[in-house]
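Tokens as discussed.
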């Protein structure tokens, strides 16, 4: 039996006199879980994640567990004059790291997330960073303390393709190390590509998913010699790493994607069905 790192029981949330945003939400987050939260605009995803990250309290119900938490908020406070390395080192120290540890870890994450050297080395103030780069600093901040539970609000939005790949690796690593990840995402396919379980927030409730249908089967294709911006029909995600392009595509588009890639002079390095999501679920219709 796996032990929960974090649990919500019958959680409700209401802002003032407005109708409840969350009602009777229960969720267990255990080591190895990668949980995706889907939902339309205003459905309460950010509210739920804020409660999981303990930056907001539920109006009713309980939250239990004391894991080391990393939290990427929906809007990263990027209005600072501070530079990314100094900002992260400051947060690291505030969270109990030594100055040296905080600076080393901050630099390592910024390098891994591929901030340009000017941004990384502190030439650019936070408030002048692009949305994607601010998101990377936010991610580095969330990862700084090596969290047991990583809670991220729409982490894939605004990231370039290569950072998508890094984030996918980070999620997989947390899981392999016995940690857990919970993140929100509005695109079902993007969430399903990285999760072990998917839920949808609707009417304030967290709806469990229904089993994956064969129509949602996916293929991973690794190519060399393609344009990194190539986006064929059926594409779910695309990651560029070491001059290889790794595509995740809906299975029914696989043959057409391969044919088009070969026509354009690419070389096929690998094609395989993705079966690594035992609990991945297709979600209920909107
Ligand atoms: N601090 C707050 N005070 C008052 N109302 C709030 C507050 N935070 C969120 N809300 C309201 O609660 C509802 C749910 O918002 P929330 O941001 O949790 O949804 P969301 O699913 O993350 O939306 P989106 O995808 O648009 O970011 C919305 O109607 C929002 O206006």
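Sequence:
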């Amino acid at each position: 039996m796996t032990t929960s790192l974090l649990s919500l029981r019958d959680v409700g949330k209401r802002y003032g006199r407005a109708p409840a945003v969350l009602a009777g939400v229960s969720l267990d987050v255990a080591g190895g879980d990668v949980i995706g939260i889907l939902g339309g605009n205003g459905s309460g995803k950010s509210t739920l994640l804020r409660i999981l990250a303990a930056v907001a309290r539920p109006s009713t119900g309980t939250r239990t567990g004391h894991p080391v938490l990393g939290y990427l908020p929906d809007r990263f406070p990027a209005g600072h004059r501070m530079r990314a390395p100094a900002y992260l080192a400051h947060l690291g120290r505030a969270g109990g790291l030594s100055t040296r540890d905080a600076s080393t870890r901050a630099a390592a994450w910024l390098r891994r997330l591929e901030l340009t050297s000017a941004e990384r080395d502190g030439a650019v103030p936070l408030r002048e960073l692009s949305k994607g780069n601010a998101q990377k600093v936010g991610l580095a901040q969330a990862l700084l303390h090596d969290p047991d539970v990583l809670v991220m609000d729409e982490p894939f939005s605004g990231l370039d393709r290569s950072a998508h790949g890094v984030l996918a690796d980070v999620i997989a690593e947390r899981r392999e190390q016995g940690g857990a990840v919970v993140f929100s995402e509005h695109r079902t396919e993007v969430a399903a590509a990285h999760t072990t379980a998917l839920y949808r927030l609707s009417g304030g409730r967290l709806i469990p998913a229904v089993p994956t249908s064969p129509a949602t089967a996916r293929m991973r294709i690794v190519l060399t010699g393609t344009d990194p911006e190539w986006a064929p029909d059926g594409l779910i995600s695309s990651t560029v790493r070491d001059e290889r392009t790794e595509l995740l595509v809906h299975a029914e588009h696989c043959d057409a994607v391969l044919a088009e890639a070969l026509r354009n002079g690419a070389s096929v390095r690998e094609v395989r069905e993705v079966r690594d999501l035992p609990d991945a679920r297709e979600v209920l219709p909107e």
